User: Fold this.
Amino acid sequence: MTAAPSFLGLPDRLAGGRVPRAVIFGAGHGSTYPGKDSRGHALAAAAIRAASQDDAPLIEHWDFDLGGPLFDGGPVSCVDSGDVPTRMHDNAGNRARIEERTRAILAMPSVPILLGGDDSVPIPFFGGFAGHGPVWILQIDAHIDWRDEVNGERHGYSSPMRRASEMAHVAGIVQVGLRSVGSAGPAEMAAARHYGSRLVTAREVHARGIDAALRHIPDGARVVVTLDCDGLDPGIMPGVAARTPGGLTYTQTIDLIAGLGRKARIAGFDLVELYPPADMDGLSALTAARLLVNAIGAIVRQA
Assistant:
């Protein structure tokens, strides 16, 4: 049986025992709601890795998104460690394994990059930063994700920001790309505002640029980025479960990632909610792969 390709053909370890700047890992399942099926989202990491293969021979070539080669003229400094084993509806077990892998990467020390999976996998990812705080969270998403529970499950894809707000090591939350209507009602909005979450709509970014979001991040802060693919406009990211017009453009998103890398420090990055069954000609997987390249590039260029 042939092993699945890694992202960009990256190795699973660096020669000579070098510690990587960043470590990629996948997690197909997080905390699936009762009666729901998360198998479509579990295809995402493999789809993103497959979409990256055409660029695998080009790592040392000039990347115009980054203003230079991916690793800025230095040696490869990111690895792909494969996937955490997860099973649909093994919610507690999945959370424990994702958090354990995150902690192990932080202990190296390296920046963990998680490929989901639905939007429940960020909760244990955030949890893995306990003891490595304080951290801010920058969420790129169409929705605020502040539901306290759904059908008795408190760690599902509607709750990651609510759970993050309860973590002592999370110093603040900035949520950008918000638009249209979702699961949040007045009670969820009140909870987010009471906590002090900075809510930035997609319309604000379109009108004022990425500073509408970056101005809320303290200079030099350590930031965990959680990127829900429906935060981008469905014209460039159709492969999501909740298509919502008016989202961020590709350029706005990579400028936000790069700007964050210059203003603060990206301590972790996750990309979730890609839904390959709804993709069109692989466009969403390709866009997601390029977003991941830009995240790696920003991390490599951090002081």
In short: The chain has one domain: 7-300.
